[in-house]
Design brief:
Elements: H1 2-18, E1 22-30, E2 36-46, E3 66-71, E4 83-92, H2 95-102, E5 112-121, E6 124-133, H3 150-157, H4 168-205, H5 210-217, H6 219-229, H7 235-242, H8 251-274, E7 276-283, E8 287-291, E9 295-297, E10 300-303, E11 315-324, H9 326-351
Parallel strand pairs: 1-7
Antiparallel strand pairs: 1-2, 2-4, 3-4, 5-6, 6-11, 7-10, 8-11, 9-10
């Protein structure tokens, strides 16, 4: 019985990892001079995501990106005309210029930070390039440190690329980790911010402590309601109505909408990221000598990280490449020859 349970858990984990609705590809061509050619692809996506205010990167033609829209490559959605493949391309002078667009300090955009380093080591010149995906959790009233420990972090770091087989023991741990992320950390994040919204609206419309006490007495109910209906944009107002709090409508409705807008936007962003499937590609200019890539084909490196890699902590992808400094080798050869010639001349002179 236990064996069957473990097998079921493993199958369930694999289904969880492959049932993704938002495929994304990030490709960066790194040039010797530090300039970068960036390509971002959204597949199986809504055609409206071509607009900066609609996609999770905040990019589009209005910001200097070349945009190409084609039919989705997924045969399952080819019949859906609203599902397309959107390709964004742009050249950046350096990593700082790219970071200014793709690593903005905002809670509703997918953030990636790039770093380019070039070092001269006489015989070789090295380039180290990295891209770090920022955490996608955007709750403001919960701390990941209160939910995840060092063991969780170590497990996440050693997770293989998405789609790779993992052991039964790891599949069980992964299911428990996903449960912790969604059913504990996520629910508590929504609960705390929703409860704050309820308190603020009640305080602003109903003087005294009576209805604030009602909220306090029903904290367990509120949490369970959030656990059941999270994602509904008018959830805070529905909870207040269910508790019989006599808020003045439509004034309170507008206030709930205003106060909930930011939370709803962040939750929608996190939901989109949760359903994503990610592939990152970095094309280096010279021979690759070191990286943490999942696979390498010539000078192109590939990563296919699970979302767990960057739910609440940074995820760095790096590559190092080098080229031989021919002039340095030639100069060193000349120095060796001249040194030998001088030593021979001196020896002959002393013998004479």
């Amino acid at each position: 019985m236990m064996k069957k349970t473990l097998v079921a858990l493993s199958v369930g984990t694999m289904l969880l990892l492959t049932a993704c609705d938002n495929p994304m590809v990030f490709h960066t061509k790194v040039n010797e001079d530090g300039s970068l050619d960036r390509t971002l692809v959204l597949d199986k996506t809504d055609s409206m995501n071509v607009r900066p205010e609609r996609n999770i990167f905040g990019i589009g033609e209005e910001k200097g990106w070349d945009v190409k829209i084609t039919q989705s490559t997924d045969s399952a959605v080819k019949s859906d005309k609203n599902k397309v493949r959107i390709e964004f391309r742009k050249h950046f002078a350096d990593a700082n210029a790219m970071n200014a667009e793709l690593d903005q300090q905002t809670d509703t955009l997918f953030r990636i930070n790039a770093k380019f380093e070039k070092k001269f080591r006489w015989f070789y010149t090295y380039i180290r390039y990295s891209e770090t995906i920022r955490p996608v959790q955007r709750f403001r009233m919960v701390d990941p440190k209160d939910f995840f420990n060092q063991e969780d972090e170590s497990f996440i770091k050693r997770l293989p690329a998405e789609g790779k087989e993992i052991s039964l023991a790891d599949s069980v741990y992964l299911l428990l980790l996903n449960e912790k992320i969604s059913d504990h950390f996520g629910n508590m994040g929504i609960y705390k911010e929703t409860y704050q919204i309820l308190e603020e609206v009640v305080k602003n419309n109903l003087p005294g402590k009576r209805w604030l006490d009602t909220l306090q007495k029903n904290q367990e109910y509120i949490y369970k309601r959030i656990e059941r209906d999270k994602g509904e944009h008018d959830l805070a107002e529905k909870i207040a109505d269910t508790l019989g709090i006599p808020l003045p409508k439509p004034k309170s409705t507008l206030e709930f909408q205003t106060r909930s807008k930011d939370l709803n936007t962040r939750v929608d962003f996190m939901g989109y990221c949760r359903d994503g499937r990610y592939q990152s590609e970095i094309e280096m200019p010279w021979t690759v000598v070191h990286s943490n890539a999942d696979s390498v084909a010539g000078q192109i490196l590939y990563w296919r990280p699970m979302l767990n890699k960057f739910v609440y902590m940074d995820y760095e992808m790096f590559a190092e490449s080098r080229k031989m400094n021919v002039w340095a080798v030639a100069l060193s050869g000349v120095v060796v020859i001249l040194t030998g010639w001088v030593m021979v001349r001196r020896r002959r002179g002393s013998e004479g």
